[in-house]
Amino acid sequence: MSKAVKCQQVMEALERIAPKRLAEEWDNPGLLLGSPAQEVHKILTCLDVTDEVVAEAASLGADMILAHHPMIFKGIKKLRTDLPLGARLQKLMVHGIAVAAAHTNLDTAEGGVNDVLAKAIGLTDIQPFAAKAEEGAEPTLGRIGYLPESMAIEDFARQVKENLPVEYVRLVRAGDKAVKKVALCSGAGAEFIAKASFLGADAYVTGDVKYHEAQQAVEMGIHVIDGGHFGTEFPVAAVLAERLREELSGLKGEVEVVTDTLSRDVFAVI
To answer: 259 phi and psi, to 5 degrees?
Structure first.
């Protein structure tokens, strides 16, 4: 077997892609399971560390999983292997699989989740828009950009659906206004609806929109397209794998980076 890289080298590459300083205070990115000193021959990138992803990693011979969502958010007081998280951690340790996460730091980072989403749905002249932009030089959680040509909101909603890994999107239609300027925030970003409206966006793309948040959007005159949490974030897994390959290519050790292709949204329409 060829010489592997160290887990610490993978974490250093991840830091270059998505610096931890960009993470929100409540977040928990970084190395969550494993040792910086362990050898890594194969990495699996994914959105969530589910049982299916752990099984996929084990079957592929991966010794590290790099996820967007941290599998550990809060302190663990009991490690019960009869419960889902404990059982999952046990399987990972049995197979010697390290786990790391890049969450809100990857949302915010240039070329991260929000930039991937913006490009996927056809935006150009993409710029950051959310809170941190007002404070200084760091990137921000959300993005705002433009469609090449104005279009009806229904047509844009179909374009979003066709370019994301989803079976459907939910449309909050705020009148007959055409769409040209679009704001977005991947995952659960309804908190920025008012910000997007203030910045003059015709439409806002995010996930996990609640009823009263949709009402607020209509009152403000901004269309909303809810592409789901999974749909707006899963595309970054493949892009992250490619970025890692580039960052790790100059190292003396060899490491293979593969992407989860089995995960699906937990929601379905019946």
So the answer is: -115, 140
Does domain 110-227 fall under CATH 3.40.1390.30? My reply is yes
96-154 pLDDT, tens per residue? 999 999 999 999 999 999 999 999 999 999 998 754 445 555 667 899 999 999 999 99
Q: What is the pLDDT of residues 199-219, one digit of tens each?
A: 999 999 999 999 999 999 999
Comparing CA positions, the residue from 263, 261, 258 lying closest to residue 40 is 258
Tokens 């404990």 belong to residue = 86
Q: How far apart are CA 2 and CA 22, in angstroms?
A: 35
Burial (CB < 10 A; 0-12, 13-18, 19+), residue 101, is buried
Per domain, the residue ranges of the chain are: 5-103+234-259, 110-227
Q: Is 2 buried (19+), middle (13-18) or exposed (0-12) by CB count in 10 A?
A: exposed
In this prediction the pTM is 0.93
* Three-point CA angle 54, 55, 60, nearest 5°: 100
Is CATH 1.10.730.10 the right assignment for the domain spanning 5-103+234-259? Answer: no
